[in-house]
Amino acid sequence: MKGGVPLAFLAIVAAVWIALRLSQGPPTELAMDARPPTATGNVEGFRVDAWFLPDEELLGFVEIPAGPFVMGSDASVDPDAFDIERWSSTSAQGIVDLPAFYLARYEVTVAQMSAFLVATAGAIQAQALQTPPDHPAAFVSWPDALAYAGWIDATLRESSATPPQLRALLSDGWRITLPTEAEWEKAARGVDGRLYPWGSEPRQDRANYSSRSAVPVGSYECPECPFGLADMAGNVWEWTRSPDQPYPYDATDDGEGLEAEALWIMRGGSFGDGQSGVRAAMRGRADPGARRAFIGFRLALVR
């Protein structure tokens, strides 16, 4: 384990947190409408008639099987590991056993967020819609992300455009929300404890990081990545439904006393981060009202 986080890194983190806390804006209001919006254009691989969700059997949701995985970082193996990724004072990493869940193949796109706003007559920071429709939605706060998840959940339950298999899951007690940080990390690194979604060495041909801007979702092929998910490293940070809590991870922290939480966990790093920031175990955190060009989200389907 490292003796401590370098002072330079702490200074950068402090500066980012201060900037994020200054970010303000009203949460999106939720008003459900089960009709697909008027099409404004095509996005290759996504359905115009289904709110620009992926043109797949489950509209982009990918099953992550039940079972254990290694969570956290061992600094003796990962030289970029930070203390907040260490499991406890006695153990570098922990084993977390999760039930099956589904995670979206792609980050939520500008087109999908636009469909939400058309259907709900909602309001969101204008910058969120200024990038191309196939880019990840950014400038999205934590309440915005939850509002979108709630809307698409309600919409898919009522719409005739919902594929039968997905409709069956929703009817059987599954719901659409944000992933926990444990769900996110398992989906990113699989069950073999790798450092990055593709393995244990940084590769700029596998993810968008150390760059100037986000790119269309799914731009980087990653045949080695577990479960076939895209952009689990880089592009934009992704909100989770886990509040900022020290390890060991406890799933009950994701559902109790949330009104008192000041910071929420983000995962995956962004286009502007270096190799240490896009590791699968890296933990970011931000004020729920933060809206920045490097913060987005993806959806989970859970029971």
Structure, explained:
Residues 1-39 have low confidence and may be disordered. This protein has a single domain (7-302), classed as paralog of FGE (formylglycine-generating enzyme), CATH 3.90.1580. β1 and β2 form a beta hairpin. It has 303 residues and is an alpha+beta fold. The longest helix has 17 residues, at 142-158. A 4-stranded antiparallel sheet has the order 3-6-12-7. The protein is built from 5 helices and 12 strands. The chain is globular. Helix content is 20%, strand content 15%.
Structure annotation, total helices: 5
> What CATH first level would be assigned?
Alpha Beta
Q: CATH homologous superfamily - what is it?
A: paralog of FGE (formylglycine-generating enzyme)
Mean pLDDT: 87
**Which range best describes the helical content: under 10%, 10-25%, 25-40%, 40-55%, 55-70% or over 70%?**
10-25%
Shape: globular
Through-space gap between termini: 36 Å
The CATH topology is given as paralog of FGE (formylglycine-generating enzyme)
Rg calc? 18 Å
Total individual domains: 1
Query: For the report, how would you describe the main beta sheet?
Result: 4 strands, antiparallel
> What order do the SSEs take from the amino end to the carboxyl end, as H and E?
HEEEEEEHHHEHEEEEE
Indicate the structural class: alpha+beta
> What portion of the residues fall into strands of 2 or more residues?
5-15%
How many strand units? 12
Strand order of the largest sheet: 3-6-12-7
**Uncertain runs:** 1-39
CATH architecture: Alpha-Beta Complex
